Amino acid sequence: xxAQGGELQVRDRIVVVGAGVVxxxxxxxxxxxxxxxxxxxxxxxxxxxASSVAGGMLAPVTEAWPGERELLELGAASLxxxxxxxxxxxxxxxxxVGLRTDGTLAVVVDSADREDLDRIVTHLRDWxxxxxxxxxxxxxxREPALGPAVRAGLAVPDDLAVDNRLLLAALRExxxxxxxxxxxxxxxxxxxxxxxxxxxxxxxxxxLESSRVVVAAGAWSATxxxxxxxxxxxxxxxxxxxxxxAGSLPPPRHTVRAAVSGRAVYAxxxxxDRLVLGATQYEVGxxxxxxxxxxxxxxxxxxxxxxxxxxxxxxxxxxSFRPGTADNLPVLGAVPGAPEGLLACFGHGRNGILLTALTxxxxxxLLAGRGLPDDAAAGSAARLTALEVLS
Length: 391
Ligand code: GLY
Hints:
It comes from Actinomycetospora atypica. The chain has helices at residues 21-33, 60-63, 69-93, 111-126, 136-142, 164-178, 292-305, 352-367, 386-390; strands at residues 13-17, 38-42, 57-58, 104-108, 132-135, 152-156, 160-161, 181-183, 187-193, 196-202, 207-209, 212-215, 233-243, 255-260, 263-269, 274-278, 313-324, 331-333, 342-346. Helix content is 29%, strand content 26%.
């Protein structure tokens, strides 16, 4: 019998809300592993959110700060999966994802920032992670695009980087080939009855009936069910996309992270002479304006480290919203107090692209009813008791 909005009821339907890298990966994995189910991916504008406004660095070591050991371990577990994940996406889609293996150089330009670098090295060694300390001259020898202002650095050769937009396109194609149906609408709310999920209400008034809903709507996830309220907030970031012009100095080969007068900036090269600069960080709700000060700081800080970029074309300035959580860890699986069948898959914060490979495995085991992989346990939604949410 037709359900509300004319939808046919499908007994085994999995609805994934949100078509960024995490949601599209979840939908692809769901369709791949559950061929009998209809997998519907709901998003008014697939691939247009935070996943497209990203550098694509796969750099858990330089993204981790003292006190974020669990995040470092999650990131390291995901980085180890990335070569296999990238190969699987490329195979399933027939498209490249632009994986780069040149590693990261973290550099500083003044003495206060050098002390920060020292502190990071000490913490990393305490955690048993390796990092090679470099003088400014050594850093420039490895990366000729670095300018004379660079005074010290840190090499992290095992880091990777991926072209986030190629990745989005490849994931979308892999999902399509696996049978995922895209539904270009906004999800308004996850419905439940008797303690279990019954479907997803869309902004066109229809309800997609389903007993399994993966919420992967990034910073918007908290609005979809009262049990998710307060679990995730928007953390705005701005990025710039540059292109080297004929006669310009070439972009760096490595991902370059820099601290400049206490501000963080990163530059992630692409295979086509383009460079992504990021990223500012603001707690301003869903304000999507790109600010003059944000662009000024990113360009000024990046140019101190990579002086050749002054001659590049500035192709794009964009802003979006990282899905931030109280402890900077993602929220994966069944949330305490949420209806049965609602699987959280959000809150990846600064590490959405990095953690996608681990999240792919997490979605596979969660949908199979086996819980999270051991090395994803720090992201378990079960840690979120009502008390922690309120405090
Ligand atoms: N991981 C990069 C960023 O959040 O800006």
